[in-house]
Amino acid sequence: MPAWAPGQKRLVAGLVLALTGPVLIAVMFLPLRDVVAGSTVGMVMLVPTAIAAAVGGPVAAVAAVTAGSLLHNALFAAPYLTLRIGGPEDVLSLVAHVLVGGVVSAIVVREQHAARAATRRQGAEARLVVLEQVDRTRAALLAAVSHDLRTPLAAIAAAASELQAAGVDFSDEQRALLVDTVAERAETLERRVGQLLAASRLEAGAVTVTREAVDLQELLDEAVAGIAADADARIRAHLSDGLPPVLADPVLIVTVLGNLIDNALRYSPDDRAVVVTGELAGDVVVVAVIDEGPGVTADTDRLYSALQPQAAGAGLGLAIAQGFVRLHGGTLEHHQTPGGGATFEFTLPATTEPTA
């Protein structure tokens, strides 16, 4: 289809306007034929021409000019009810109507083409922005995955190589240390693969949210249970007394809490605690994970920055946490902790429903 040709429905609508518009104007001005100059009627006949051109394109514009010219000549140029023209004034009026009608329709069609071209350009630019954002996210994702998978794999490979080394006599303590290293890094690797699968589900839009009334302390306990046992002692929970249940998907929010706490533990000194707070604020519960690490920096996580350009975070886990929180209608906010460190917080709707 040529660039100037409208769709079939628009063409039919334009032709209907092209034929009915001049007829309606002629019927309206016919009783005033002896009072209103024919040239004035000719100018008014240009209105359906412009409308028909806008709706149905050049073909409808030509039809409107033709219909308007014939009606103008037959009904408003003496001798009436003929296609003859009685005087120079009527000739000039008819020629002016045809010329102006052609110019008007050409201008309308040209402006429509320009508007459509601008819309196409804007759409292409918007798609380009989205593609660039996807590329940045993909690059950040690959970088995060590469780091998060390569580190435990390297530790497993090194420990296994040591255990397999010929001629090396390990003590029971040394052997146990190497075996523990393999087990711990395998657990880390399993957790990272789970995060990668969660990220893939988020990107594919395959995550469903099943909300129910649940106690925040239960969610926190389950999240802490999934973290290394030696880190349990570093986690402090300060939930407000009488905190109501929250309306949330337990599986997703446990993942959010686990990822935030795991991230805080990774970036905090071993002798510093990670604090999880929960406070009621109106009809929502504000949950915060606070650490005393280096704080939010521009290079702690490129993936989180790619998903939220105005922010910086740490780890693939943060990107997943952000996505799961968004599925609940909120956002994962972060700021520097007073005195040093980072605070990540999000909100969940409070509910009066009893927990299951």
Keywords:
356 residues; alpha+beta; Helix Hairpins; Heat Shock Protein 90; 5-stranded mixed sheet; 7 strands; 61% helix
Poorly predicted residue ranges: 299-314
The total beta strand count reads 7
For the largest beta-sheet, the strand count, sense and barrel status come to: 5 strands, mixed
Q: Count helical runs.
A: 9
Shape: elongated
Please give the share of residues in helix. 55-70%
From N to C, what is the helix and strand string? HHHHHEHEEHEEHHEE
In CATH, the topology of the largest domain is named: Heat Shock Protein 90
Question: What is the name of the CATH class of the largest domain?
Answer: Alpha Beta
Structure report:
- With 356 residues, the protein is an alpha+beta fold.
- Helix content is 61%, strand content 11%.
- It has three domains: 8-125, no CATH class; 135-204, Helix Hairpins, CATH 1.10.287; 212-349, Heat Shock Protein 90 (2-Layer Sandwich).
- The chain has helices spanning 8-29, 38-44, 46-76, 88-164, 172-204, 216-225, 250-267, 302-307, 316-327, and strands spanning 212-214, 235-239, 246-248, 274-281, 284-290, 333-336, 342-349.
- A five-stranded mixed sheet has the order 2-4-5-7-6, with helices on one face. A two-stranded antiparallel ribbon has the order 1-3.
- The two termini are 61 Å apart.
- Mean pLDDT is 77; it is low at 299-314.
